[in-house]
Design goal:
mainly beta; Umud Fragment, subunit A; 3% helix; globular
Length: 146
């Protein structure tokens, strides 16, 4: 399996605000608000929303099908933060015997395991192998084909 390319986050990304609609509310007697009202004054910057610590954040592209049941598919972009302390239930990017993987960190019988969301893959006993957590997945960017 080819190793994915790790891309560090820009430590000072330029602001890229995009229109961010407000929830629709009732306006006037007709009950139909102006379509332009949805875009008044609110913006969303995905760097601000997804990258909390630029110096410890990196991006990677997913290969394989082991995490599809959790909404992480082949080709998805992961936003990973290496400053977050891994806890059970977190989805991690880690090395297992030198191979880079994306797995859920779980305790099974008080022992640490890396598990897949695909039942075709067995849990990996992290205590029995050479494993190292690289970071916790903060977000998944999934693009739809148009």
């Amino acid at each position: 399996m080819p190793h994915p390319k790790l891309i560090p986050a820009d430590p000072a990304p330029p602001a890229q605000p995009m229109p961010y609609p407000m929830p629709l509310t009732r306006a006037g007697l007709s009950g139909f608000p102006s379509p332009a009202q949805d875009y008044e004054g609110r913006t969303l910057d995905l760097n601000e929303r997804l990258v909390k610590r630029p110096s410890s954040t990196f991006f990677m592209t997913v290969t394989g099908d082991s995490m599809e049941a959790l909404g992480i598919a082949e080709g998805d972009l992961l936003v990973v933060d290496s400053a977050i302390e891994p806890r059970p239930g977190h989805i991690l990017v880690a090395t297992v015997e030198g191979e880079l993987v994306v797995k859920r960190y779980e305790l099974i019988g008080n022992r640490p395991y890396f598990t897949s969301a695909n039942p075709a893959y067995r849990p990996i006993p992290a205590a029995d192998l050479e494993c190292q957590a690289w970071g916790v997945v903060r977000a998944v960017v999934h693009e739809y084909t148009v």
